[in-house]
Every structure is written in structure tokens, then in C-alpha cells.
């Protein structure tokens, strides 16, 4: 039995590559940096990408997953990082454009303000009509607190906290009535 345990431990031990990571970094970094600069046309971005690729190489080696060909691996990881950065930038640009196109009401109309005030008062009354535990779980969820954290705060398991939240929301909807529920959702 002990032999199996040791064999099992040996199988989990990190495998060191046949090459020295310091030598690879020293040899590959300048060429990698020039190659990435050619892709991005920005030296600062290229330095960030090269550094991230080298850190990922180091992490892979430490985890026992060092590549057979570190130069090719660094280039592949660099391409992936550049493509990912371009995608993230495109999404951010689309979000900014959508925000710019969204009409802005500098001052809400009197009617809109009155409706919002009436809705807010209905929500306050409905919340006041709930049990303290229901009110607490709804307020926590409304503030974006993760379910796991709500469960810990309430001293319950995560499934129990989820059930409490679902039931509390149902009671809140019942207290609000059909007219206000449509305005809140």
C-alpha cells in the first residue's frame, strides 16, 4: 500500500522542462517584444503583453506544465493576449458608443417625477409590510451582495438563503400588487 502512495505522489510532482527558464527569458524576450510591437504598433502595450506571456510561462513551469518549445508557446500566448485585448477594447468601444447614443433627460418631467415618487412610496410600504428577515434578504440582494455572502450573513446555507430570497420576493410582489410590479420589473 505504501508503494502505491509514493508512486502516486511521484506522478503528481511537477515535471521540470529540459530548458532553463532564465535563459529562455533572456534569449526570447527581445525578439518576442519586437514581434508583439509589430502586431500592436504600440511599444507600451507590447511590453505589457510580453511581460504577461513570460509570467504565464513561469507559472506553467511552476505548475509542471512547461511547454516543449517555449519560443513557440510564448508567441502563441502573445497572439491570444493581443486578440483578447482587441476584443475587450471593441466591446468597451461599443458600450461607450451605445451610452453616447442613449438620450439623456437633463430634467425629468413633473409627471415622471410624480410617478417615480409614487412607485418609491409603494415599494417602501410593501417592504415595511414584510418580516424583518424578508426585508433584510431583499435589501442585501438589491444592493448586489452575492448569494453566498447573504447566506453567511444570515447564518444559513446557500440553498436556504436562496429559498428565503425567492419567497421574500414573492411576498414583496404580493404586497406591491400587479400595478406596481410591472413598474419595478
List keywords for this structure.
79% helix, Rna Polymerase Sigma Factor, Chain: A, 2 domains, Arc Repressor Mutant, subunit A, mainly alpha, 185 residues
Explain how this protein is built:
The chain is mostly helical and 185 residues long. The protein folds into 2 domains: 15-101, Rna Polymerase Sigma Factor, Chain: A (Orthogonal Bundle), CATH 1.10.1740; 111-184, Arc Repressor Mutant, subunit A (Orthogonal Bundle). The chain is 79% helix and 0% strand. The chain has helices at 2-12, 21-40, 43-62, 70-101, 110-128, 132-142, 147-154, 158-176, 178-184. α2 runs parallel beside α4. The longest helix has 32 residues, at 70-101. It starts with a helix and ends with a helix. The model is unreliable at 1-10 (pLDDT under 50).
SSE map:
Layout: H1 2-12, H2 21-40, H3 43-62, H4 70-101, H5 110-128, H6 132-142, H7 147-154, H8 158-176, H9 178-184
Helix pairs in contact: 2-3, 2-4, 3-4, 5-8, 6-8, 7-8
Gist?
The protein is mainly alpha-helical and 185 residues long. It has helices at residues 2-12, 21-40, 43-62, 70-101, 110-128, 132-142, 147-154, 158-176, 178-184.
Order of secondary-structure elements: HHHHHHHHH
Looking at how many chains there are and whether they match, the oligomeric state comes to single chain
Strand content: under 5%
**CATH hierarchy class name of the largest domain:** Mainly Alpha
Examine the secondary-structure arrangement and name the CATH architecture of the largest domain.
Orthogonal Bundle
Overall 3D geometry? elongated
What structural class do the secondary elements suggest? mainly alpha
Which residue ranges are poorly predicted, with pLDDT under 50 across at least 5 consecutive positions?
A: 1-10
* CATH topology (fold) name of the largest domain: Rna Polymerase Sigma Factor, Chain: A
- Portion of residues in helices? over 70%
Count of extended strands = 0
Calculate Rg over CA atoms.
Answer: 28 Å
Number of domains: 2
Mean pLDDT over the residues = 85
The largest sheet, given as strand count, sense and whether it forms a barrel, is: none
Amino acid at each position: 500500500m505504501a508503494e502505491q502512495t509514493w508512486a502516486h505522489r511521484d506522478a503528481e510532482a511537477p515535471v521540470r522542462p529540459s530548458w532553463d527558464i532564465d535563459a529562455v527569458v533572456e534569449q526570447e524576450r527581445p525578439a518576442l517584444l519586437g514581434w508583439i510591437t509589430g502586431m500592436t504598433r504600440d511599444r507600451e502595450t507590447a511590453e505589457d503583453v510580453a511581460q504577461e506571456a513570460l509570467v504565464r510561462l513561469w507559472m506553467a513551469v511552476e505548475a509542471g506544465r512547461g511547454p516543449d518549445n517555449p519560443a513557440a508557446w510564448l508567441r502563441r500566448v502573445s497572439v491570444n493576449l493581443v486578440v483578447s485585448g482587441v476584443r475587450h477594447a471593441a466591446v468597451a468601444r461599443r458600450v461607450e458608443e451605445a451610452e453616447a447614443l442613449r438620450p439623456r433627460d437633463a430634467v425629468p418631467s413633473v409627471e415622471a417625477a410624480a410617478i417615480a415618487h409614487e412607485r418609491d412610496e409603494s415599494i417602501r410600504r410593501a417592504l415595511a409590510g414584510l418580516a424583518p428577515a424578508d426585508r433584510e434578504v431583499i435589501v442585501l440582494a438589491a444592493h448586489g451582495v452575492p448569494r453566498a455572502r447573504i447566506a453567511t450573513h444570515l447564518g444559513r446555507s446557500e440553498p436556504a438563503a436562496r429559498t428565503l430570497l425567492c419567497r421574500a420576493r414573492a411576498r414583496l410582489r404580493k404586497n406591491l400588487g400587479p400595478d406596481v410590479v410591472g413598474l419595478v420589473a
